[in-house]
Amino acid sequence: MDQIDNIKTGILNHDFSNAIFIWEAIVFPICVALIYGIIYSLNKTNAIYAKRRKELLRGSKEADVFSTPESRNKNIQEWVLIAAKSRLPDENERKFAIIAADALIERILDLAGYHGENLGDRLKKIESSDLDSLNDLWEAHKVRNRIAHEAGYKLSPEDSARVIACFEKALKELSYI
């Protein structure tokens, strides 16, 4: 028991300042290197994610989520139905077509990694250099918002054709159709 007390006393009375200095000298550079590694990894991950998102928007064959023949045919059929409704004489059908086209673009941008509460939020996250038809999409989305929020909004066949053309331009650029 005396030996244990002697060891305790030796430990408690020992000057560890040298050992702590050595410990700090070893641990500090390791911590700095690990923190640098974490920051470097995060930056590289973000760069890869941004490149992937651009590839999706540009329609890269490696990243094209719509490239299988089955999905391509389904996409074209879906768009043909929307475009056909946009040419009907019934104004409500034309409005429905524009809302459907807006929802389709919103879904595609979500798949491409542009997340947000609505299409407007997603469009704000896109750089104009990433999508040439970005301004057209904004114009088409503004018309969709007027349809959805203004009860008396009148949609002429000409306006419907112009808006659908804007959506179609973006869908082609995104390699959806």
From TrEMBL:
Keyword field: Membrane, Transmembrane, Transmembrane helix
Superkingdom field: Bacteria
Residues passing through the membrane, by range: 20-43
Protein name: DUF4145 domain-containing protein
Organism of origin: Candidatus Giovannonibacteria bacterium RIFCSPLOWO2_01_FULL_45_34
Lineage: Bacteria, Candidatus Giovannoniibacteriota
